[in-house]
Each structure stands twice: as structure tokens, then as C-alpha cells.
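Self-study notes.
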Amino acid sequence: MSGGGTGLDLPAAAVEEAARLLEGRVVRTPLLPLLAPGAGGEARVWLKAENLQRTGSFKIRGALNCLARLEPQQRRRGVVAASAGNHAQGVALAAAQAGVPALIVMPASAPMVKVESTRSYGAEVVLAGDTFDQAYAEASRLQRERGAFFVHPFDDPHVIAGQGTVGLEILADMDDVDQIVVPVGGGGLISGIAAYVKQRRPGVRVVGVQPRAAPALYRSIQAGRLVPGESARTIADGLAVKEPRERTFQLIRRYVDDMVLVEEDEIAAAIFMLLERSRLVVEGAGAAAVAALESGRVRPGSGRTVAVVSGGNIDINLIARIIERGLVADGRYVRLAAQVADRPGSLHRLLGVVAREGANVVTVSHERLDPAVPLGDTEVGLVVETRNRAHAEQLIAAIRAEGIACRERP
């Protein structure tokens, strides 16, 4: 992908200057091994856990670096930003630390956890539109109206340099990294990481990951020109950018080796896996790089691969749904429909089979009114916990062996 001459660049020295400015003000997030179940030896994939960063994502890095460059007059007028959530929190905290008034415009669809967190840092929050781009348009209008400084979430050299400190830390903490996989929305994070890494250690491969549901930068790179996205509705709401910008587009063309797309269910599976295996709470955007590796869309190299886990600000209700779906996909949560005679003892007989097979009943329901169920019978709906898919199939076979019609419900 490398190539494409442009006057837009990011010197490695700018990232190093940002790192000095941010020292002691951001968390030096750890590199954590991602070990497969039962795996021995050393991990091939490591996680740069920016979900453990202040405000729950990498965005505080760029926001702090940008606000530190404001002139006194700009500080007095305040700052305006548009964000789906993580940039909002970063700007709000950076502004609070600098004593600068902050107005943040967020889409009405932004997760409430991100909206409330932004307000908790003292920023004024305005909800406008259903997408980031609609919120961005309203923020631009308010910025002109107030004469404030606009802190762009990715199309700003100081923001990009701040995000690039993620790459600086990876290189400093891991000598033998040979690949870094990075989630991509507007491209600020991968632009900063790739520009720094390729200037300081050119042999390290940098790969970007976008959701197939929000692929604007991926399509732009494929086309060799900026291509606006048609839609941007994805579980990875932090990556839902429809309008890519020239600065990050050119930096990606110059420094990034490849970009891939991941599906929504792959992102959800990565969130579930990171929660269970690594004990990490990760949002959709933060799980995108891991999703690319777990799905095989990106292969680990001969050395160590680092997946950037960019954020952990996920709505608790969404986590609950993802956990349930993950358990179903693993065969550990099974929904069954069993047809039994509508008379005393039938349910006890069915549940006795479940108990003998070592499964656990979560819920039980009856359906007598369905015309497909013969008169005199009832359909019993069960939600059952099992050990794995093989155990679930064993349970269904045992129920059928008892002479009870049983099927798995979708």
C-alpha cells in the first residue's frame, strides 16, 4: 500500500515531542499476552491495552497534545469537538485540566455511558444527528458561531502525533515486534502509529482494520482517492466515520502496509473472547484488531504481533447481549423446544433427562396455543447451560432417545 507522494507528513520527532509532553499525564498502558486456551510457551499475539487508558481509550493522548499547543486567546474562547464518544471524553478531560471551556457535540445514538462520562469531566454536551458526520456538521456551525478552536478527532497534526505515542511505546517495550494491527475509523490512530513506526523501524508491518459496515477509508485506499461511505452503522461505533480526510488518507497510503475488513459478528466474538479469556472489557472499536486476527483475516508474523485494543467504553446492556450470543455460539447456552404430553409427570420426565446429562436449566416456558402443537400436547421451551457444542448435541440426542421430540431453536 505504501506510496503516493504528498506534502502531508508526520515527522517521527513530532511524536517523540508529544511523548515527552504526555509523560506522567497519560497511562503507560501495558502489553498483555493473548494466550489461546491451554496454550503453553510464549504468546505470538500481544494486546496494547489502551482500554486501560485514562477516559477508557487512546483519545486522551491526541487531545492533550493538541490543547497544549493553544495560544492564550484560543484558550479563552474555548474548544469545540465532535465525537461518537471517546474523543469527546479525551477533549473534555484535557480541557478540564487546562482550564479551557469545552463544548462537545455527540450523535444522539452515542452510548449513554460515553455521553455521561463526557459530562462528568465538565464539558457542555449537545446531542445532534444520528451519525458522527451529522454531529460534526453541527459542531462546525457552533465553532464558527462561538469563535472557538475546533479539536478535530483525527484530521489534526497534533492529534495524530499524540496518537502516535501508542506506536512509540510499543517499539520501546517490545524489541522483536514484527507486526502491529490497528483499528481504523477516521485514521488518526493508525496514521500516527504507522508514521512513527515506519520511520524508526521500517521492517515492522502495520495493518489497519475497519468494519465492513463502515469501510470508507478502506474503500478510499482501494480506489486511490477519497470515497465517502454510504453508511456507518456498526457495533464498533468509534469507527463509524463516513467522510475520510486527506491528511490521514495520505499518511495511510504512505506508511500502512495493508487494510482489511471485519464482520459485525467477528467483532462481537472478539469482545466476548477478550472478556472471558483476557478479563478485559473492550468496546467494538477496541476489539476490531483482535477480530481480524481471530478470524484469520490478518495472520500473525514469524515474530510478535501487537493488536491495539483502542478503547473499553462499551454500554453494559450491549455487553449482556454479546455475552448471551457468545454463549449460544459456543454451544454453552442452548434454546430447545421439546414436545411432551400435556399431563402430570411429562415435564418432570423431560427435566430428568436434562439433569442426568449434567446440563443446567435456566428458563422453562410452555406453549399450548400454537396450531402446530397437537391437542393434548404442549411445547416446552428450555434455555439450558451446557459445557460446549458436543455436550449440547449429546443432550438433544438423550432427550430424543427418551421418546421426546426435541429441536434446537434459533
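Second protein, same conventions, sequence then structure:
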Amino acid sequence: MNIVEIIKKKRNGGKLTRREISYLIHGYLDGEVADYQITAFLMAVYFRGMDDEETINLTEIMLNSGDIIDLSRIKGVKVDKHSTGGVGDKTSLILAPQLASLGVFVPMISGRGLGHTGGTLDKLESIPGFRINMDVEEYKKTLEKVGCVMIGQTTKIAPADKKIYALRDVTATVDSLPLIISSILSKKHAEGAEALVFDVKIGTGANLQDEKESEKLAKQLVSVSKKFGTKAIAVLTDMNQPLGNKIGNWLETEECIEVMKGKKVDDLLKVNNVLAGAMLLLAGKAKDIDEGEIIAGQAIDNGTAYNKFLEMVEVQDGDVSYIKDYKNLKRPAHSHKFVSEKEGYITKLDAFNIGVASVELGAGRKTAEDKIDYLSGIILSKKCGDKVSHGEVICELFAENEDRIINAKEYVKRAIEIGDEKKSQRKLIIDIID
């Protein structure tokens, strides 16, 4: 086969055979297909798309590019959650220990930030010493011992996705349905979970910003999962403004700790506990999502979720004392308070521009080689619907140098609108698809 002809075929809108997709993916893994060629293929898919058969073939080929973990020796239901990506989207850090404290096994293989959206692995690595790399046997032992485990892809788990994932982040090919589906499901079906809950973000801060495309993605994630024999539920959640009040890797970890210690962050708690409720339903621990939401809330209120989080951090070599010291605020060298220029109500807090601002501050990557500044980010003092006075702080920006703050301020300015009248709030939970 000729790699150029395969790229040309997809560029021209043709349908690729399973053999052609396999040749391209395995050629990339073997070093016979160059980065620039796979980038051209990704861009062709971005513009031309793939039909259902192509998407399933791509998913299966990426899944079978590495090991598929067998967790049958662990007696109990294994359920995981995956978010399609958002700004301030930090629920995984609460959900894994929360569900584990309720007797549900949570095997979680996560990814890094994509574009303007944050990544679970980057948040975990903001905890000094936290180890996200494990071989399969240690992964199983940790899951068996703690009830949850949070790692990155090993070289043997969906290695094709691992390589392609990094390229998508820096080539503007993140928001493509077939690429999203194949990336998510190749990882999730390789990790050994028997049931999956998808948090599909809708709004300006989502990786897939078109609402109809997000709804289509949710339905396809559920339907393709079932073709692989996996139970699945998709929850469509709002991402027009950031989730919670903190954006940035340590800042989001800090907010999760605060929530597990009893702080009420209403939007974060609502989305988190609905997702937890869906996971409990699939695990057979609740009769419906509403009951699961109540049970999940109790695991936070009684402290068991936080204690399980500490156990997970310790077992994965993270610095537990750093976690317990969260009230002694860890902040970078420079900060800037963004204040209101007039009185009124916050009518818009655009998640996309806030996400881009956080990348400018150092919380995300512009190139594959960029290093994360774990302490940088944004703290929101106001959210949509809140009243604000002239000169009152709307948010505070944090970075290791002043230049980053100067660049970020322009995006924050674009994100915020203040009006004379309070607008009605959009629903956090837009729809549930099973």
C-alpha cells in the first residue's frame, strides 16, 4: 500500500477500508509513517470525517495496537468515567476515590490536556511525587488494594492512541468526532472497565463546541461501547462557563480537596454527583441515577471519599503531607486581580477564552514539548448571574512571570461580559443518554 494514496483518498472524501486504516496506524507505530504524514491524515479526517464503519474500525485497530487488560481476578464491578474535555473540569479526582469508598472498582487511565482544556494527568502530577506510570500488574494490584487507580497510558495500552493524542493537541485536530471516539474508546476498553459513564461537554469551552455534534458524539459513544459489550451512559453537561471556581492544575486539585473536605461548590458538586450516580447505577449500587446521586453525596459528607483519596495518593507515591497542607495556599510568584469596570451582573464567562488564558499562564501546552507550570491558573470570584460592583474582583490570575499574565489578560477580557440585568442560568445537566 501507498501511504500518500491513503491520505489522498481520505482528503478527497473517500471511505477507507479496514486494511488501509490498519496499514496507516501500524505503519506509524513501526516508524514507517512519519509525523507529518499522520498529521496530514488527521487533518483529512477532520475535514472529511469518517462513517460509522470507519470509526469502529479505527477504534478496534487502535485498541488492538496494544494489550487489553483482564481484570476478571478482581471480584466486583469495574466502572470508569470519561469526560470529553472542558475548562475547570476536575471531577475525576473526586469520582475515583468517591466510588471506591462505596465499593465500586474504578480503573482509570487518563490523558493530558488537549488545546484549551485541562487533563487529569497534569492535575495528578501537580501533587509532588504522584506516580502515573505503572505496568499492568502493578495497576491491577493497586486497583485491588485501593479500589481505584489513576494512571496514564503505558507503552502497551493503546500505544497508537498515545502517539496520535499528542499530535492532535498541537495540530488543531482535537474536535473531530471519529478521532475523539477512537481515542476515548481505545483507551477505555483497554483498561478493563465493564461499564462506562461519559461526561459529554456542550458549550464554548468543550473540545467539540457544536451542540448537535456533541449530542451525536454522546449517542455514538454509548452505541459503539455497547458493540464492544460494555454498558454505557452519557451525561451531557454545560460547558459555557468553567466548572467550579478554579482553573489550573494544582488549583483544580486544591478545589477537589476542598470539596471532599466539605466546601460547597454548587456546580462542581452537582455535575460530579450526577456522574457518580450514573456510575453507581451501572455498578448495581443504586436503582436509578437520583438515588445514586444521594449516595454519592453521602460519601463526601462523611469524609470517606477524602480518606480514600489520601490512600490513593499514598499508594501512588504522592506527597500526602502536601495534600493535607492545602490550606497554606501554594501560588506562583506573580498574580493579577481582574476587576470590574462597572456595576451589573455577570452575563457571560466564556469558558473557551478562560481556557486559552490558562494556557497562556502556563497551565497548558502550545507545543508537545512545552512544560506545565503546575501552580499557574485562574481563580474565579464571580460566575454567571453574580452581581458585581465597580472595582470588585472578578478573578485572579497566577503565573511564574509577568509576561504570561499580560498575554492572558486579553483573553480574560474577551471572556467576561457584564450587563444591567441578571440572565437566567442554563441547566448544568442538559440530557442523559442510555
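Instructor comment on the second fold: The radius of gyration is 21 Å.
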